[in-house]
Amino acid sequence: MKGIILAGGSGTRLRPLTGTLSKQLLPVYDKPMIYYPLSVLMLAGVRDILIISDDRHTEMFHSLLGDGSRIGIHIAYGEQEKPNGIAEALLIGADFIGDDQVALTLGDNMFHGPGFSSLLQESVKNLDGCALFGYPVKDPQRYGVGEVDDSGRLLSIEEKPETPRSNLAVTGLYLYDNDVVDIAENIVPSARGELEITDVNKVYVEQKRARLTQLGRGFAWLDMGTHDALLQAGQYVQLLEQRQGEWIACIEEIALHMGFISAEECRRLGHEMASSAYGSYLLDVAARGMKVAAR
């Protein structure tokens, strides 16, 4: 499976912070925002990833992450000239996707919860069409809302409905089979000229090949697209990391956990940042990994 992170957009809701800097490069407590969606794809076992941004910020992402080889993955870069809808990422990434399945995630979404990696990998393994993830919210009128049957099959999706059929908001994480490129190519743009991801998902619903997994109690889904949401996300990460001593979206630790890099490689990465708390944490993670490997 290939992975795409849509990290474009103009970030207007976060001005003036995004006057010169991409939203996805803003700090969320102790790491850049892009680390959070990147960690999701890595937890799903995806190692071939395309980051789509605009031409002003692509080089910044490359300076931060390079080609991904340091953490045992491959990162390529694509450009979206202007925000033309989430589904356009599938067209920009068509050659990158090739004949593979694809996981598409939004660059300003954070997911965290127990057993999330196993849940993602199971969803990838059993993918037949489209797999979405729903999160219960108290104000579903503000979101795309999914209606499911008892087996988890998606029956309908409505965008910001006045009378929602459920309280399950469709999150910014989408898993698709290879048919999605052809589907996206045939989507009619909205009145604003955008290719809506909901229209892509509705095709799978009509084909009865769409499923929605509910992220319930114990999970966190955060859209970090406003000043308040950005602050709340940082406070969430700070609270859990300081209380539990385990870091969220530490991509080097995830690479070690997934077998993408060795404990020794993790230790070297930690040494490069040894003067920071992040580097010290990596050194501890590497030391634990070396002890396990020596058993």
UniProtKB/TrEMBL annotation:
Its cofactor is Mg(2+). Its EC number is 2.7.7.24. Keywords: Magnesium, Metal-binding, Nucleotidyltransferase, Transferase. The keyword DNA damage does not apply. Transmembrane segments: none annotated. The keyword Cytoplasm does not apply. It is an enzyme of class 2 (transferase). Residues 2-236 form the Nucleotidyl transferase domain. GO terms for molecular function: glucose-1-phosphate thymidylyltransferase activity. It catalyses: dTTP + alpha-D-glucose 1-phosphate + H(+) = dTDP-alpha-D-glucose + diphosphate. Belongs to the glucose-1-phosphate thymidylyltransferase family. Catalyzes the formation of dTDP-glucose, from dTTP and glucose 1-phosphate, as well as its pyrophosphorolysis. This is Glucose-1-phosphate thymidylyltransferase. The lineage of its organism: Bacteria, Bacillati, Actinomycetota, Actinomycetes, Kitasatosporales.
